């Protein structure tokens, strides 16, 4: 069969021959008509359609040409679909539709289905749909089949079960069709393993990005809070400094005027000036030190510190001063107290603030006792330094403000003892730099004196114990 330009020439020749045959029949009928009329075989007036033979031949020839052309096109179309079905890269299968509208056994499958699922030639045919597709997937439900029957097609995700029992995630496109006059379901399934992995990785990156954004937001909020706190500290610092410096400066001006107006008493005024200058110097030094602590300009040199040794030496050095004030001071160290990681110089300064306050506010005949002990609280272990006195104590309503800068309680204001109101604030900042705390034991009643504590965290690696003093 030779074709050129889409025309089957053998069919054309057959049609031409049919036309020639039709023309010959036309001529034959005409000749017979004349003969029969001449001899009187056909009655006169009887008409024979002389064009009948030629017309029939022409129509038959054209019809034959068209029939052959349609047959060839149908054959070519079926061949193309066969190639697409058998050589397609996606898994293609045809299932019978059961009388109840469900998906039955496999009727046809392409090479990709057999290769991807690991079945030998012909093994998929007559295999139940439930053996191929995971029956737990939602598309096997009656609602999905109802959608397929109603819409004629449906797209869904499923898991195809391979011959070795493993499952392959696929995206299935199902369509209703007919095969040999019977209703069937034609499915095209695409392996989406890599797509699901990509989606999972994308979800992971998205979650990680959200975590990074949340962490960054938290860091920015913390930085903003810190800036706001520093701004408040600055405002408080300016306000407090202005208030605290106003009194000694006014006193200096006053006594300068008194010296000028009454030279005979200049010794008295000069002594007062000296005290005011000392007070002013103390305020400035404490302010500068506290400012350096706030800005973390004072380095903390963490080393293993034996608190019993440090506190014991400090207390023994204060025994003469306590004796001058008719006070007794004692130290009791807990045995086997673990060492702490701390800056000994800063810890001693915080201890000095607490002991100095105790000595200043305890009346003659009183006692100041210092001791160390282990404390388990807030889910951690702490090495505590306790300073207890027998002075007037601290009022309950003053405890919340006790560590505010420049704050002095009623006892401090009425005692006449010099002070800036910055000591406890400095002690608390030193403890904070060590991740520790300064506490006031509110359960220790005012009529029995005051109890202040410095808590320092015990490092897990600090296993060495210090001896009791």
Protein architecture, described:
The protein has helices at 9-39, 52-87, 111-117, 129-132, 142-151, 193-261, 266-294, 307-324, 344-361, 410-415, 423-433, and strands at residues 3-4, 7-8, 91-97, 103-109, 153-161, 167-179, 182-191, 303-305, 328-332, 337-338, 340-342, 367-377, 380-389, 437-440, 451-457, 465-466. With 469 residues, the protein is of the alpha+beta class. It has four domains: 3-85; 88-191, Beta-Lactamase (2-Layer Sandwich), CATH 3.30.450.20; 202-293, Helix Hairpins (Orthogonal Bundle), CATH 1.10.287; 299-466, Histidine kinase-like ATPase, C-terminal domain (Heat Shock Protein 90). A five-stranded antiparallel β-sheet has the order 4-3-7-6-5. Strands 9-12-13-15-14 form a five-stranded mixed β-sheet. The longest helix is centred in the middle third of the chain and has 69 residues, at 193-261. The protein is rod-shaped, with a radius of gyration of 54 Å. The model is unreliable at 1-6, 41-54 and 460-469 (pLDDT under 50).
The low-confidence runs, each spanning 5 or more residues with pLDDT under 50, are 1-6, 41-54, 460-469
Helix and strand string, N-terminal first?
EEHHEEHHHEEEHHEHEEEHEEHHEEE
CATH class of the largest domain: Alpha Beta
Number of domains: 4
- Largest sheet, order of strands side by side? 4-3-7-6-5
The number of strands is 16
| β-strand amount | 15-25%
Looking at the structure, the CATH topology of the largest domain is Heat Shock Protein 90
The helix/strand class is: alpha+beta
* Relative helix content: 40-55%
Overall pLDDT confidence: 76
The CATH architecture of the largest domain comes to 2-Layer Sandwich
């Amino acid at each position: 069969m030779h074709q050129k330009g889409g025309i089957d020439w053998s069919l054309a020749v057959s049609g031409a021959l049919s036309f020639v045959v039709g023309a010959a029949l036309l001529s034959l009928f005409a000749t017979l008509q004349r003969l029969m009329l001449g001899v009187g075989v056909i009655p006169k007036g009887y008409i024979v359609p002389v064009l009948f033979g030629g017309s029939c031949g022409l129509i038959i020839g054209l019809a034959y040409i068209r029939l052959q052309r349609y047959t060839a096109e149908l054959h070519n179309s079926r061949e193309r679909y066969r190639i697409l079905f058998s050589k397609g890269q996606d898994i293609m299968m045809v299932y019978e539709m059961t009388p109840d509208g469900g998906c039955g056994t496999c009727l046809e499958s392409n090479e990709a289905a057999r290769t991807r699922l690991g079945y030998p030639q012909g093994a998929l045919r007559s295999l139940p749909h439930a053996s191929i597709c995971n029956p737990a997937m939602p598309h096997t439900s009656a609602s999905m089949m109802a959608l397929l029957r109603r819409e004629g097609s449906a797209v869904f995700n499923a898991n195809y079960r391979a011959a070795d029992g493993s499952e392959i995630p696929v995206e299935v496109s199902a369509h209703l069709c007919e095969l040999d006059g019977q209703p069937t379901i034609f499915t095209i399934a695409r392996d989406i393993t890599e797509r699901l992995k990509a989606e999972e990785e994308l979800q992971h990156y998205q979650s990680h990005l959200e975590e990074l954004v949340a962490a960054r937001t938290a860091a920015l909020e913390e930085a903003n809070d810190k800036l706001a706190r520093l701004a408040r500290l600055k405002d408080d610092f300016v306000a407090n400094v202005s208030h605290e410096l106003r009194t000694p400066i006014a006193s200096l001006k006053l006594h300068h005027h008194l010296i000028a107006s009454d030279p005979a008493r200049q010794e008295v005024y000069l002594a007062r000036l000296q005290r005011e200058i000392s007070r002013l110097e103390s305020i400035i030094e404490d302010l500068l030190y506290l400012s350096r602590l706030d800005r973390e300009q004072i380095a903390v040199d963490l080393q293993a510190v034996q608190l019993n040794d440090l506190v014991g030496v400090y207390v023994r050095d204060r025994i003469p001063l306590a004796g001058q004030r008719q006070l007794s001071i004692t130290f009791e160290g807990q045995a086997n107290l673990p060492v702490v990681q701390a800056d000994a110089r800063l810890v001693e300064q915080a201890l000095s603030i607490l002991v100095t306050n105790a000595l200043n506010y305890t009346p003659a005949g009183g006692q100041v006792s210092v001791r160390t002990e282990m404390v388990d609280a807030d889910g951690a272990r702490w090495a505590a330094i306790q300073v207890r006195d027998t002075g007037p104590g601290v009022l309950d309503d003053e405890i919340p403000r006790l560590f505010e800068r420049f704050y002095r309680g009623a006892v401090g204001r009425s005692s006449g003892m010099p002070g800036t109101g910055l000591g406890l604030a400095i002690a608390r900042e030193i403890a904070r730099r060590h991740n520790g705390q300064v506490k006031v034991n509110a359960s220790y009643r005012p009529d029995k004196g005051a109890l202040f504590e410095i808590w320092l965290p015990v490092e897990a690696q600090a296993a060495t114990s210090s001896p009791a003093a």
